[in-house]
Amino acid sequence: MGIFQKLFKQTFIYGLATVLPRMLSFLLVPLYTDLLPTDEYGKVSIIFSYFVLFNVILAYGMETAFFRFFNKESDKDAVVSTSAISLAVSSFGFFALALLLKDQIAFLTDIRVDYISLVIWILLLDALVIIPFAWLRANERPMRYSFVKILNVAVNLGLNVFLLKYLSELTSTPSVLDHICKDNYEINYIFISNLVASGLTLLLLIPFYTKVKYRFDQALWKKMMKYALPVLVAGVAYSINETFDRILLDNLLPEDVAEHLVGVYSACYKLALFMTLFATAFRLGIEPFFFSHAENKNAPETYAKITKFFVAFGSFILLTVVVFVHVLKKYIILDESYWEAVKIVPIILLANLCLGIYHNLSVWYKITDRTKFGAYISVVGAILTLVLNFVLIREYNYMASAVATLVAYGTMMVLSWYFGRKYYAIPYDLKKIGMYLTLSIVFSVLSFYVFDSNYLISIPLLLVFLVILYASEKRELRQILKR
What we know:
Elements: H1 2-26, H2 28-35, H3 38-59, H4 62-72, H5 76-100, H6 102-109, H7 113-128, H8 130-138, H9 142-170, H10 186-211, H11 218-252, H12 255-269, H13 273-292, H14 299-323, H15 325-332, H16 345-361, H17 363-367, H18 371-423, H19 430-450, H20 455-482
């Protein structure tokens, strides 16, 4: 159980680095939905959708390649310096080109030039901290990692609150702040807050760049890029699955309602954040763990147990959020005009649970250097996302996007399990995994769609699930808790 103790300890600390900052940023949802009309929030969501896509492109799989070769190569300094130089050169190249073409980008995306300029700066700063953060994780320094991550979002949150809510009050009388307070400048303030936080993060990680031995190993770089490029394809496909539906909604729906529907969809999508937080924290904890224990003879059995626990806890989170979603929406989404899209929440929760399971199952192609399968599977998911959205959006608007997300992630999960059996057999406990998934889905449907969140029915269903979960796993749960 020592391995599990270490895993859960690291997952907990990385969870703090992910969950606490995102819970802080979660406060931005009530702030935005209180101060911004649905169409303005829709604009912000569309821009952040492009953010996700370009963050993936600028990383081009180098983070995952870093982990693989850091554990594989004897010359770790060469891995660190080569990956750092590669990302720095590509990031500054993108920065110069994007600034040169910002007017053309604004025309193509129908986004204001001043927003584009801010986004370009943020993308540069975020790209430059990818390898420093990966280095902290690879060297098992989760406390430092957590501190910087939490500070980043705390600064972002604080500036958002100050600029959006209090700046206008402070400038009601003449002051030095008058020149930064402008009318209809809310979206700019959102990205300025992000820019300052990203700049501070890079500043805190500058010591990494002072320690790097600047030596570019071309042969190593070619091997890393060969490993990374399929990860890039998978990442682009993932960004399409995760956020491209907002862009499609904006382009396929009538102009007079598009941004409103993107706004309500994006706001209610945030109610599924609890599943995303859990899955992300878990992934951050297990990714280095998977690589470092790949040569252990008991690795397949260990991976199987980890996946079983992930599904069990994820199923519990799914059902809990579904049961209490109508309570949560009142505290998170303050404007009732956003609530019309709350019916997507159970679908998005299940979709993100499938995605989390997929990430656990993906261990087989990462540790066997078959990352091309990750690209293939993600591309299948992206094609499903695009096709279903194109076919269904005009008739079903954001419900089509929610269903497309579930179909894409569910298919990716099944495909990864299917191909993994051939290349790296892992003895998953399919009986228990299937039981937890089925119970949580059936109970969620009964609670939300059949009995309309009647607590006299939904809370007992949640308790029944907990009893079954504890009865099935009590021995191993007791051992973990004792340690």
